[in-house]
Design goal:
Blueprint lengths: L19 E7 L32 E6 L6 H6 L1 E3 L19 E6 L2 E9 L1 H11 L3 H5 L8 E3 L30 E4 L7 E4 L21 E3 L6 E8 L3 E7 L5 H8 L17 E6 L21 E6 L14 H8 L2 E9 L5 H29 L30 E2 L19 E6 L6 H16 L19 E3 L10 H11 L1
Parallel strand pairs: 1-3, 2-4, 11-13, 11-14, 14-16, 16-17
Antiparallel strand pairs: 1-10, 2-8, 5-7, 5-10, 5-15, 6-9, 12-13
Amino acid sequence: MNRLSDPTPDDYSRTIFADKCQLTLAAGSGGHGCISFLREKFIAEGPANGGDGGSGGNIYIQAIRGETSLHKLARRGIVKAARGRNGQGKGKGGQRGEDVLIQVPVGTVVREISRRDPAAEEEEQASMDSAAEDEVRGQWRRDKWILYPSSVPSDYAQTEFPHLRRSQRLVQLPAPIHLDLSQPMETPMLLASGAIGGLGNPHFVSKTYPRPKFATKGDPGMTITVELELKLLADVGFVGLPNAGKSTLLRAMSRSRARVGSWEFTTLQPNIGTVVLDNHQGRPQLSASRVTGEPRTQFSIADIPGLITDAHKDRGLGHGFLRHVERAQVLAFVVDLGAGDAIEALKGLWHELAAFEALRDREINVQSESRMIDWKAFGSTAPSVSAHEAAVAKNGAGLMINSSTSQRLPELTLKPISTKPWFVVATKADLDGAQENFARLQSYLDAIMSRDEDHPSGLKNSWHGRLAALPVSAIRGEGVDRIPEWTVSLLHD
């Protein structure tokens, strides 16, 4: 066999991939109001002219095409919007805090784990405490008021502080947040809104206090902990035994620099490649469109680590591998024509997938029966309410809303693996004896389509569509041109 096309070691690249991460979103706090007075010649005691504090920055999210992994966000861990600037003299308001935009791949699911919202905590406290209105008026509170420089709280012992407005927020998504970003977004969506800035001293001018020497502090920002998870890993997922030629096939179809080798488990995490259908330099290779009607210029491929026997029992890479298979729209089973009977290899792969699907169904049933999302105040025996009518609680750290005491979210409910379109890629077709092996494989697939043979998964409601076995020699680049055409037809259907 001609192995002149084998890549050299310096042609490999390390793939950094993450399909699940937790992220802490910290919206910006509001800037403080300013205590200032007009100073001009012949004006002994000028009026108050302190500016208001700026609002804190917001945090937005947007699903875009081109992103394939969450590893950039997983490394950050905390996303923090800028705080609003303090107000200044001469009536100058503080600058607004800078917003933060989070860009995620299409197919990302955002679920809230917990949140801390001081504004909601204050509102709940006021509604539960009938005397809260009286406490806000007439008392100095360190967390609310700013005093004139060089003064102390004792100087204001006889001062009746004005009534304070309650903390406010911009438009905010109802808790708990649960977003399914399955389509690309033209405009970002607000996740966490910044806090309102404090008021300058002109807001408190009255007959009693014509020159107030106090202003208010900006509201603290809210903090939300969310879990991001990819529901859609790629358009096509390569499923096969170790050393079946999946990484070599990926390199032959795309510009991926995945590592290849003649040993098992060369790939330990998914490698994502992109097959370009239209590079906008002439006539496209294939004319296809998405479900939304927009032209399809490319599709993504996931080279998933190899599957071994009893992977559904979490052996080898186990459930970590099988979880990636669930997140592909179309499955391409890669079988090695030079490593034994291709039919038995295909049946073995489907046996593991079917066993894993049955296991996941049992887990989902158990979770749906035993898991109850209970929103109630910590330490209270109040009856539970719905998620959208979540009760809030008062504690030392602020408002915390939790979906469960264990802080663990249930697994995503995805489309069953057996109902996904699939086809077979027979690699190493240039080896001796591969033609007879491929002929038997093709006859087996024809029998499945004619319903003479059962679906290899053995499950009901499995996908029964057009099946094909495409013989290729990935290392020589022979036969791989047929794969994009067949894949696009399945994605279109």
